[in-house]
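S.,

Sequence below, as promised.
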Amino acid sequence: MDPFVYHSRSEAETAILGAALAEVLPDGSVVALSGTLGSGKTRLVQAVAEAAGIDRRSVVSPTFVLVQEYRGRRTIYHLDAYRLRDEDEFLQLGPEEYFEGNGLTLVEWADRVARCLPREFLNVEIEVTGTQSRRFEITAHGESYAGVVRQLEARFPPSGSNPLPTSGVR
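The prediction came back faster than expected:
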């Protein structure tokens, strides 16, 4: 399956994607986030959390605490692998407990711990394309996430055009 590509010209358009993800991700989902510093990984997590009934201002990068847990209409587990020395240090956090739970688990800098991720997950690569603009490439790893990608494709017009949802999220 080809990845879904979403072009965002602003934080508001990134929030639209985050709200759509919060709506289409099933309980127990794992989302791997990758991109350079300042690409918008935490901003996307904030948007997902806000759509799940969590004050986005309470969602901060867990770089120094490594794991944050937020509770709203859905539970969000926010992990960060940026400051970890290696995959063994990530495994000491007990990520399988989060991966097997009912919440949404979002892992920033997931490319640093790729071998520790579950067999199935949703991968989100974020590329900075301008001061406020970003390119999100969303790839399914596993059949259950292929359905998520199909739902996102159905909600948004073809890539390259304005990211306005075609149904559901407003």
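The beta strands are 4-8, 30-35, 67-71, 75-80, 104-108, 121-128, 134-141.

Coffee later?
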